[in-house]
Amino acid sequence: MTAPHQESVVAELRAAGCVFAEDEAALLTAAASSPDDLNALVAQRISGIPLEHLLGWTDFRGLRVAVAPGVFVPRQRTGFLVEQAVERGRIGTGSGRVVVDMCCGCGALGLAVATELAAYGIAVELAASDIEPAAVACARRNLEPLGARVYRGDLFTPLPGDLTGRIDILLANTPYVPTAMIPRMPPEARDHEPRSALDGGSDGLDIARRVAAAAPSWLAPGGHVLVEASGTQAPVAAEIFARQGLTPTVAHAEELDATVVIGTRPVPDRCARQSGNLPR
Predict the structure, then answer these.
(1) Domain of 168: which CATH number?
(2) Is 31 exposed, middle or buried (0-12, 13-18, 19+ CB in 10 A)?
(3) pLDDT value at position 275?
(4) 45 and 146 share one domain
(5) Eight-state DSSP code of residue 160
């Protein structure tokens, strides 16, 4: 498409209230195969369809990640969860880590963590799961080139038993929007992303509670489960982890308005191991 086409698109998007009209116009213009195609893309964007669903991809931590209609689009602030996971994945012995991307959506978090740990010479055995069929199909496109296994089902249910007690990093991007707040969400999310990826129950932490309850038996000693939460939810989420015997940590990135709550499975002390009094 030519510059005049793009200028016209900018004007249409700006009139429709798109905050990043120039950037979106450039992407839509590049994606269009003809003027008619461009007009159709712009009309769909103005109607509220997420830009990423129209393009078929999103940029997440420098990676082009495939997305599709009906699949949750990873938020840029969730890159902070990836940073926290990589920081912890770099610590420890051995040259490999077992990583699970739960509530994986398109698999962006697992893809980013595996890619970034690989840059430090750390191999990753990666698995992922989601309850939504469209998300599973999309995650397989993104993760199977890494040799990852992607399962469809509810949280831990579809995971193979050989992961029990072996997971070093559990990325659990659980939904955390309180049910009553769903109607107030932007239409892009509310109308075009699966409810299961958004609705966290009455206080937004229902799914986090379920993850925390099961995580200790799946994590390796010293392994970590990471969830995203709002700033006001974080103390409650930390207490949820603590009640399950996990050591909680709260990390916040002010510039991203991102909060991550980490639960770490304690490593049995040497005396307990020698006496046989291992925690169960």
Answers:
(1) 3.40.50.150
(2) middle
(3) 46
(4) no
(5) -
Neighbours of 237 (CB within 10 A): 28
CATH number, residue 49: 1.10.8.10
Domain total in the chain: 2
| The one-letter amino acid at 207 | I
Residues 22 and 132 in one domain: no
Q: Which two tokens stand for residue 68?
A: 């599709």
**pTM given for the model:** 0.91
What DSSP element (H or E) covers 1? none
What CA–CA distance (Å, rounded) separates 240 from 133?
29
Asked whether residue 253 is assigned to any structural domain, the reply reads yes
What is the maximum alpha-carbon separation in the chain? 77
Instruction: Enter the tokens of residue 245.
Output: 């015997």
Which of 12, 40, 66 represents a domain boundary (last residue)?
A: 66
Give yes or no: residues 98 and 60 share one domain. Answer: no
Domain extent, residue 170, equals: 76-265
Are 138 and 43 in the same domain? no
Q: What is the mean pLDDT of each run of 10 residues along the chain (280 residues)?
A: 71 87 91 91 93 96 96 96 97 90 98 97 97 98 97 98 97 96 92 94 97 98 97 97 98 96 90 48
Check whether residue 237 and residue 160 sit in a common domain: yes
Distance CA 83, CA 220 (A): 20
CB distance 176 to 233 below 8 Å: yes
Answer whether residue 278 is part of any domain.
no
In a domain, 42, yes or no: yes
Q: Assess contact for 54 and 44: CB atoms under 8 A.
A: yes
